[in-house]
Amino acid sequence: MNTPNKLTLLRVIMIPLFIVFFLYDFVPYSNIIAIVLFAAAFFTDWLDGRLARKNNQVTNFGKIMDPLADKVLVSAAMVCLTWTKIVNPWITIVILAREFTVSGIRIAAAAEGNVVAASIWGKLKTSWQFIAITTALIFMQKVLIVDICMWINLILTLFSGVDYVVKNKKYLSYK
């Protein structure tokens, strides 16, 4: 197993740890540990992609597991933030619906032997997801800055989702 795939698996392992430290205050500074775990997991996403491309270590496992790990990380964070009433449930539902729709399109494309790369809008959305979720984790309460970041996140999520569906609608047809 190559380094990028190991980093992807590390991200998957960090997700339940993030959830435990976020939801349960059983050690001093649990919330800080949760923030560090979330940031580290997000960093592995950037790093594994960079290493895979730089070292020509792109694998089928990485093509499927990397975006899936990202979706699970974002989903876990959004559900935790909703559970603690920091984020409105409907925002989380819309964001998760976009993430699963895009995953479905990627799976359909993969079934036909194609890989659909993220657009600039998807990358911008991902950056804002990190900013919005990290801001919410830092403040740990519903405040204006968290709401603003989540609204920007929501708008970019919707825009990138529509862009993705329109550009890849051929994978939505029945054969």
From TrEMBL:
Is-annotated flag, keyword Lipid metabolism?
yes
Q: Which GO terms describe its molecular function?
A: CDP-diacylglycerol-glycerol-3-phosphate 3-phosphatidyltransferase activity
Question: Which pathway is it part of?
Answer: Phospholipid metabolism; phosphatidylglycerol biosynthesis; phosphatidylglycerol from CDP-diacylglycerol: step 1/2
Q: What Gene3D superfamilies does the database record attribute to this sequence?
A: 1.20.120.1760
Q: What is its EC number?
A: 2.7.8.5
Fetch the InterPro entries from UniProt.
Answer: CDP-alcohol_PTase-I, CDP-OH_P_trans, CDP-OH_PTrfase_TM_dom, CDP_ALCOHOL_P_TRANSF_CS, Phosphatidylglycerol_P_synth
Q: Where in the cell is it found?
A: Membrane
Name of a matching Pfam family: CDP-OH_P_transf
- GO terms for biological process, alphabetical: glycerophospholipid biosynthetic process
Q: Which GO terms describe its cellular component?
A: membrane
Q: Does the keyword Secreted apply?
A: no
Topological type in the membrane? Multi-pass membrane protein
Task: Describe the reaction catalysed, as an equation.
Answer: a CDP-1,2-diacyl-sn-glycerol + sn-glycerol 3-phosphate = a 1,2-diacyl-sn-glycero-3-phospho-(1'-sn-glycero-3'-phosphate) + CMP + H(+)
Q: Which UniProt keywords apply?
A: Lipid biosynthesis, Lipid metabolism, Membrane, Phospholipid biosynthesis, Phospholipid metabolism, Transferase, Transmembrane, Transmembrane helix
Q: Which domain of life is it from?
A: Bacteria
Principal location class: membrane
Where do transmembrane segments lie in this chain?
7-24, 30-47, 68-86, 144-166
Stated family: Belongs to the CDP-alcohol phosphatidyltransferase class-I family.
- Known role: This protein catalyzes the committed step to the synthesis of the acidic phospholipids.
Instruction: Name the NCBIfam families on file.
Output: pgsA (TIGR00560)
Instruction: State the name under which the record lists this protein.
Output: CDP-diacylglycerol--glycerol-3-phosphate 3-phosphatidyltransferase
Q: Which organism is it from?
A: Congzhengia minquanensis
**Organism lineage:** Bacteria, Bacillati, Bacillota, Clostridia, Eubacteriales
